[in-house]
Amino acid sequence: MMSQSLLKFGWIGMINYENHTEEHLLTLLGRDDELAFTEIYNRYWKKLYAMAYERLKSKELAEDVVHEVFTSLWQRRHEAVIKSLNAYLAAATRYCTLKLFSGFSKADNPVEEMALPDHSTGQAFIDFRFLEQMLQQEVNRLPEKCRLVFRYSRQEQMTNNEIARELGISSKAVEKHITRAIKQLSVSLKSFFHLFL
Fold first, then answer.
1. What ranges do the domains of the chain cover?
2. Domains 20-124 and 128-194 agree in fold
């Protein structure tokens, strides 16, 4: 591995990965350069986490999404054709977020099969307006407190702390209700997602 060779000769300090272009980092990644992978992670994880958290409103689930995206990137470093790293990772994050709703296992539909940056967004992903209608029907079937928390979070765009204050419960309880709602919805909507993905 290139980084190991440089380390052996004491030159590793001379390489500044922060200044590498996206294209150069991808080239190094394809050569198993772990430091290039680390730089990619450092550049993008906050953005991907924010994207996932915005939809899921759960730290735990957002962290799972980011972990899956970067695990997939490393596993496919030799065969993945990536024109834009930013677009690829964003698409992978959107897909992984959707996959949580679908209840798919990793083996059913691995992230790399959908995480392609050159797909048109209109065709590559589900029509969210229709998805919202389907979700609304399933949300109505949630237990009362769970449904209320989910609606405050999604429809009112309230933060976990705001919901906690409104309902007189802890932020941790809010997060648990949201996680429970998402898991229950993923089971309910599994057959629906099979029609689209």
1. 20-124, 128-194
2. no
80-89 burial by CB neighbour count: b if 16+ within 10 A, else e? bebeebebbb
Task: Give 80-116 pLDDT, tens digit per residue.
Answer: 888 889 888 988 888 888 777 554 334 344 344 433 3
Rounded Cα distance between 176 and 180, Å, is 6
Q: Look at the pTM and tell me if it is higher than 0.70.
A: no
Architecture per CATH, domain 20-124, reads as: Orthogonal Bundle (1.10)
How far is CA 65 from each of CA 51, 53, 161, rounded to the nearest angstrom? 10, 9, 22
CATH 1.10.10.10 fits 128-194, yes or no: yes
Do 112 and 78 contact (CB within 8 A), yes or no?
Answer: no
∠ at Cα 125 (119, 131), nearest 5°?
Answer: 170
pLDDT band at residue 56 using 50, 70 and 90 as cut-offs: confident
